[in-house]
Amino acid sequence: MANRPRPETARAGRAGPSRSSLSALEPIDHAPFKRPSSSVFIWVTIILVWLISLLPWRVWPSAPDLLLLVIAFWSLNEPRRVSMFTAFAFGLLMDIHDGLYLGEQALAYVVIAYGAVKLAKRLQRFHPAVQALHMLPIFVGAQAVSHLLHSWLAGEWAGWTWLWSVLLTVLLWPLADVLLHMPQRRLDESDSSSA
Amino acid sequence: MQETSTIRLFKRGPTAEFRLFVLGVLAIALLLVDARTDALAPARQAVSVALYPFQRLVMMPRDVVEHVNSWVNAAAEVRTEKEALRQQRIELAQISTHAAQLAAENEQLRRLLNVADTVNQQSVAVEVFYEPPGAYSRRLIFNKGSSHGILPGMPVIDEGGVVGQIVRVTPFTAEAALLSDDKLSIPVQVLRNGLRLIAFGGNVHGKVEVRYLTGDVDIRVGDTLVTSGIGGLFPAGLSVAQVDSIERDAVSGFGVALAEPLSHPERNRHFLVLRVDVSEQQPESE
């Protein structure tokens, strides 16, 4: 027990001469370990956003798809808690609410959730803006596939307004990061203040 | 660049690729089946019924706000409505005398022709529940469904004339395709000369089209199209649209008339569903 502080002091002594260069260094991350978000919180946010999506504001053609945003966000940040099946089920529910063919949005949701799960390991530590930038092509691709299938089956093309919707959805990613990681951040702060 | 395979220490169920494949195939299968057949209608209905309480729940604040609003504005609304009604009464008085004359004359002629009287349709008043988002189709969801006797195929009207047709029902809601929805087609007649045509939902947003007009067809800008009653779903004599423009295509030799619907589904909240007998008919859309 008494030996413990010794290496510390020794290292401090050795660090002495090169102090100027070392003191300029800052830790890359003050909170190097991310806590997992609680699954209750994840489910509450998904269901809340789903309820909000039932409201008539989505009539605006370039309205962002908040439900998709939240599901993709959790798939990327907590890939083990939110499964692709969740994405599929909520996609189907939205198909029924919107009166589209069954599976149309479910397909897009599943593809985006897959992209998020695949990128999870690479992107989790990145800034939310970078995450959003990486997710943009996946969102565009998945929605394009779903719209192409619809135009093939129904013989009509929706135009390009959905691209704005996708862009808005991705632009809201950093905001989603702020809101959905809020409980974690509060925990981190309380930890560091107690230390 | 050699491939390195990692040892999997923990089993975590099927891989993401496998899930993507299964769910993707499932989604595409659902899409194909739903687009081509009616096999999934019961499943869709069951989920719709389960969704209904949630839809009601989230719409509740909106309904409350609307209720309060209408209550607050009641006095002003009543006043303007009274003015409008007074003016309308004067206009109608003229028309009604004229109509009485015509009705008498018509009855005489009908008796002469031995034509059965047109039956007065039973109807259900419905209110818009929500407008489904989506850039494809012009649709409305109403707040009453098969529990009120609404069935797919029934026409929907407002004071301007035909609004559309019911295409899908659940016990508590009904989905109507509007006139401008490209899945809808209605047998019509030109009011001026009785020419029978079929009007389709337009490729042009919010318009109705009459396609394949040959050069000798007598149709002009300003003509009113009314339902002809052929086909049995739409009762005869409901106004549908007014022709705004006629485009003749010199190459194919056919013309297309574009017409503006006379009903205003975007302005009203209340509509009437006519409970015509659809038991032996297939809905014309889808």
What can you tell me about this protein's structure?
The complex is a heterodimer of chains A (195) and B (286). Chain A has 195 residues and is mainly alpha-helical. Chain A is 70% helix and 0% strand. Chain A has ten helices and no strands. In chain A, helix 3 runs antiparallel to helix 4. Chain B has 286 residues and is an alpha+beta fold. In chain B, a hairpin with a 4-residue loop joins strand 4 (161-169) and strand 5 (174-178).
List the helices and strands and how they pair.
The complex is a heterodimer of chains A (195) and B (286).
Chain A: H1 5-15, H2 19-23, H3 39-53, H4 66-77, H5 84-98, H6 104-123, H7 128-154, H8 161-171, H9 173-180, H10 182-194
Helix pairs in contact in A: 3-4, 4-5, 4-6, 5-6, 6-7, 7-8
Chain B: H1 16-36, H2 41-72, H3 74-113, E1 123-130, E2 139-142, E3 155-158, E4 161-169, E5 174-178, E6 185-190, E7 196-201, E8 208-213, E9 224-227, E10 239-248, E11 255-261, E12 270-274
Antiparallel strand pairs in B: 1-2, 1-12, 2-5, 3-4, 3-12, 4-5, 6-7, 6-9, 7-8, 8-11, 9-10, 10-11
